[in-house]
Amino acid sequence: MSEYLKETPWDKRNFNINTYELTASTEDALKETVDKDGHFTLKVNPLDNPEMLMKYGFYYMDTLIEPVCKKEDLHLFVRGGASISTEYDRQELIQVAEEAFIHGRFHRDFNIPSSQADKRYVNWLHDLMDANNVFSLLYEGRTAGFYAFEQDKVLLMGMKKEFRSKGLAKTFVSQGCFEQLKFGHAHLKTSISAANVASLNLFYALGFKLKNTVDVYHKMNHTSQIGV
User: Which UniProt keywords are given for this protein, alphabetically ordered (predicted)?
Assistant: First the structure.
């Protein structure tokens, strides 16, 4: 296996093609994508000149904002009727995941069918539930969505349509962060698409501060249809 190409089997299972993430953006690394079938992801500093990337067939996909929140800076919001739990109906949360994510970079990638991008989030949530890294979000005793994490990372948050735009997100996410910090973390971090302004504003309101940004580029070399 190349020192520059890291296989990403969690994406391969969704798209039924080989998938890789590059570990460097040097020309030697880019050359290794020329004659290899598959989908490639490359993350670079936004200040880097993209000319070489485009020469080798990479296209801009997204800018990821990476905010961080220290334990002592978290703003906890409370609302009557809102709570979180480690108990949930697994299939009910999967149904939320099937239609909750539209800002992901794979949803924006014109080489990836939306159904396959949806599948990626569903499988990811399955993995996180298997690892006991999911809280259910409850409002007045009803399941409203989920909050998923891994170690000190806030990964996914999804809500049913009927509970959106009701001012519940700050309460749910801050409570999820509060419980996650109980595992002994000094801080939490997350990664948000620059296109997802609502999520950015939400995390800033909770006390998260901008730490880093990365530009994400994709490339596709394929001889067969994705997902087939």
Answer: Transferase
How far is Cα 125 from Cα 123, in angstroms, rounded to an integer? 5
Q: Is residue 228 part of a domain?
A: no
Two tokens at 50?
């993209």
pLDDT score at 114: 85
The answer on 122 and 50 residing in a single domain is: no
Could you give the count of Cα atoms lying within 13 Å of 134 in the half-sphere of its Cβ?
A: 24
Q: Work out how many domains the chain is built from and give that number.
A: 2
Residue 115 neighbours by CB distance under 10 Å? 11
Q: Which residue has the tokens 């997902």?
A: 227
Residue 153 belongs to domain spanning: 68-211
The contacts of residue 29 (CB under 8 Å, 6+ apart) are: 4, 5, 22, 23
pTM reported for the whole predicted model: 0.88
- Looking at the structure, tell me whether residues 57 and 35 fall in a common domain: yes
Cα separation, 166 vs 184, in Å, equals 31
| Average pLDDT of the residues in 181-197 | 95
pLDDT tens digits for 193-214?
998 899 999 999 999 999 999 9
User: Distances in Å between the alpha carbon of 88 and those of 123, 138, 143, 183?
Assistant: 17, 10, 8, 20
- Residue (of 77, 76, 80, 78) closest to 140 by Cα position: 80
